[in-house]
Amino acid sequence: MILEYINRKKEPHYFIAKATKLGKERFYIVKDKTKYEESDLLVNIPQGFEIYEYPEDGRVVLRKILKSIIAQDEIEIVNGEMEKHLTVKDYLIDKTENSIIVYLGYLDKEDGWGDEEQFLKIQSYDFTLRFEKTSDGKYKAQRFCCLSRYYGWITMETNENLEYLAEKYCFHIDKESLLQFWIEGEEDW
Length: 189
Known about the structure:
Layout: E1 4-6, E2 12-19, E3 25-30, E4 49-53, E5 60-64, H1 72-84, E6 91-95, E7 99-105, H2 116-122, E8 125-133, E9 139-145, E10 152-159, H3 162-170
């Protein structure tokens, strides 16, 4: 059985391995399996690797397994808070080595973007809110700031209780009120 991965845009992806000049294996993702011999297509995920789908655009890669300090129950806390809010209809949650990132969809299905298949192909997501776990077990609630002076993730609050931070900030994720939270310890700009 050939290894196949179908991303959220309902596009099938297949995997092949080719030898490099140094004799190592390099993995590639292909969408059209008919261009390759069946023996070239992978049957299993290589050991030490995982299939990862980028939240922003649904691009699929084969990457080394991510070592993360984020536990599944921490992701479920944030997801539970996101599910409570009726105004957020389309979001994704992803984890990195030390953080949980919430992505919001640009488009709304109810705005008449055609059928489900068409909508999935054009929908993209943007990171909006991040909960970063520090080495001492605290969490930083962060939002992305596009001002040139502060460009990047800015910490709004640090706390030991992820549930408290998720409840406080997930409510504001799709609202202008999120911008009212400024850098922890600094005066408003």
